[in-house]
Each structure stands twice: as C-alpha cells, then as structure tokens.
Amino acid sequence: MTAQIIDGKAFAAQMRSRVAGHVVRLNEEHGITPGLAVVLVGDDPASEVYVRNKGRHTIQAGMSSLEYKLPTETSHADLLALIERLNSDPEIHGILVQLPLPEHLNADLVINAIDPAKDVDGFHISNVGFLATGQNAMVPCTPLGCLMLLRGHLGDLAGLEAVVVGRSNIVGKPMAQLLLCDSCTVTIAHSLTRDLASICRRADILVAAVGRPEMIPGDWIKPGATVIDVGINRIARDGKQQLVGDVDFSSAAGIAGAITPVPGGVGPMTIACLLANTVTACCRAHGLPAPKGLTL
Ligand code: NDP
Q1: Is 121 helix (H, G, I), strand (E, B) or coil?
Q2: Is residue 149 located within the same domain as residue 223?
Q3: Within 13 Å and on the Cβ side, how many CA atoms surround 272?
Q4: Which atom of ligand 1 lies closest to the CA of 233?
Q5: What is the CATH number of the domain that holds 201?
Q6: How far apart are CA 103 and CA 107, in angstroms?
Q7: Are the C-beta atoms of residues 203 and 192 closer than 8 Å to each other?
Q8: Fewer Cβ atoms within 10 Å of its own Cβ: the N or the C terminal residue of the chain?
Q9: What pTM does this model have?
C-alpha cells in the first residue's frame, strides 16, 4: 500500500481563504474588523519567527494585527497589566501570549489572566474545562488543525479506534478530547506506556505528538490507518539540516492509508486555526453565529 498524502499546506490555504471571506463579510455587513494581539516576551529567535508569521497571516486575512514585544526582564505586574488592557479593549478579539515565557514568569498565571473569550490559543483553564465538558470552548490550534484534517480526509470519525501518543496540555490531551467528542474510542499513550508498539498497531487513527525524531516505525502502524504526525524535529542527515516528524515517514508511507508529511502537514494548520479562532472569538463577542467549518 502507498499512503495518500494529506496535504496540510493546501488544506490550510483553503481555510485561510474561508477566514478571509468571513472577515470581508464581518466588515461589509457589520463594520467589524477582527483584531489579534500577540505578546512576545524576550528575544527567543524561534518565537520571533512564529510571531512574525502569525502577524503576516493575520494581516493577509484582512484582520488587524497588534504585536507587543516586551524585554526579557518584564515583571509579572507589567505583563498582567498589558493583558488587562487588551482584555478590556473592544477592538481586540484574540490575545495570544507566545510560549515559552522567560523562566521567571509563571505561564499558568499569565495564560489564566487572559479573558477566556479572547484566549485564541485555548490554553485558559476555563477553555480546558469547556472542551472537556463539550461546551463552546476556544480549542487549541494544533489539535483543532489535526481534527480538521481528519474530518476532511475521513468524514465521520465515530467508532474509530484512535491512539494519541503524547499527553501534553498543548497537543496530546486536547487532541484526545477532540477525538472523544467525535465519538472515537481513544487511548492516550506516553513515556511510561507499556508495549507502545501493540497499542499503536490497533489504531485506525494514530496521532503522534512526542517530539522524538522518527520514533514510530512503519511496522507499528495498522495497514490502512490514518496517521497524523504532529512532531517537528530538526535533525542533521547527509550533512544537511532537515525537519522530520515523530513517525518514520518512509516506512510508514508503505503501510498507512493516509499520512501527513513533515513539513507541510499539521504545521500550516496551526496558524490557519489561530486565524479561525480569532474570527470565532470576534463573532461571539458581537453575538453573531460562529462561522461553520472554522470551529467544532
Ligand atoms: P511535550 O514535550 O510537551 O510532550 C511530549 C509528550 O510525549 C509527553 O506527554 C511525553 O510523555 C511523550 N513521550 C516522550 N517520550 C515518549 C516515548 N518514548 N514514548 C511515548 N511517549 C513519549 O511536547 P508537545 O506536546 O508540546 O509537542 C510534541 C511535538 O509536537 C514536538 O515535536 C513539537 O515540536 C510538535 N509540535 C508541533 C506543532 C505544530 O504546529 N505542528 C505545535 C506544537 C507542538 P510524558 O508525559 O510521560 O513525559
């Protein structure tokens, strides 16, 4: 079997253009422009690239983008004061604090200071609870992107056996919740799971979110399974730097029914879902229905 490649880049481009369409309608019919504020503390080069990309895509979608760059030594008090200001600004519908924060700042405290209705990353404790109880949550962008790809590829997920490898608050746990909401039978595996190979082999849907280059070989995959590889790992191969996932793509592609590549799979969906969440937050703030197909 040769797996179908799930083209996250193309799917994300379609999603961004649907977002842009909604932004035009919000503007023309209601005079509203969705606004996203991104807060970056410190000068981590990878975070600076992410923030730049987010800003560029936000503007391309017709929304307003505000970037706040604060020095590494910023105090809790100053950061919380900025968040409070953004919480009460009616022109701002989404607030994202780029993680990781410098070590002296408590990320939980900072994230939980964001108004849950503007928490477009979906990390606020209230949104975690809303997702777990099937209420109107802001859903974390990467797992939401994975779910969109799965629904786009498989349609109805009900009854399928899903295995999520990784239990982080950012990817693994919300991914498992989303699959459960879509009526999959879900197993969450982690570093202490026994016999991971046999657990992976029973998955109709296998989501790998570990951060270990190519740790899942093809012979851990059920023939015909749909594989979503969230991992982004930088390795040196043949004297070159290369990005690889948590799944060994070359052996997996011969066994899976469909698989996301790295790069070009889940990665582009994360920003597309951030834009979608900002539009959803904006609609909810104005008592308008959230656009279909851009949220759960
Ligand atoms: P974390 O490090 O927070 O979590 C990793 C998880 O993997 C943990 O739950 C850990 O288990 C588990 N794990 C580690 N080793 C093993 C093992 N040998 N067997 C089984 N499970 C194991 O990572 P994240 O969830 O933040 O990210 C995971 C990957 O996804 C990374 O490569 C990251 O770069 C990528 N990522 C990609 C995004 C995108 O946009 N495409 C966005 C976010 C992340 P335990 O809890 O027991 O320690």
Answers
A1: coil
A2: yes
A3: 27
A4: 32
A5: 3.40.50.720
A6: 9
A7: no
A8: N
A9: 0.97
pLDDT for position 73: 98
CATH number at residue 277: 3.40.50.10860
pLDDT digits (tens, 9 = 90+) for 7-51: 999 999 999 999 999 999 999 999 999 999 999 999 999 999 999
- Name residues whose C-beta falls within 8 Å of residue 271's C-beta, 6 or more positions apart in sequence: 12, 16, 53, 54, 57, 141
Does residue 189's CB lie within 6 angstroms of at least one atom of ligand 1? yes
Is the CB of residue 170 below 6 angstroms from any atom belonging to ligand 1? yes
Strand residues in 137-232 grouped as ranges (E): 161-165, 185-189, 205-208, 226-229
Is 165 found in the same domain as 76?
no
Pair 114, 151 in one domain: no
- Does 256 lie in the same domain as 212? yes
The tally of domains found in the chain comes to: 2
Closest CA to 6 of 274, 218, 206, 293: 206
User: What domain range includes position 196?
Assistant: 141-268
Residues 70 and 39: beta-carbon distance below 8 Å:
yes
**Positions of the chain with pLDDT under 50:** none
Ligand 1 pocket test, pick from 121, 232, 233, 247 with the greatest ligand atom count within 8 Å of Cβ, gives 232
Q: Backbone phi, then psi, for 148, in 5-degree steps?
A: -60, -45
Cβ of 172 below 6 Å from ligand 1: yes
Length of the chain: 296
CA of 127 to the centre of ligand 1 (A): 21
> Closest by alpha carbon to 161, among 204, 223, 206, 208?
204
Residue with tokens 């799944």: 247
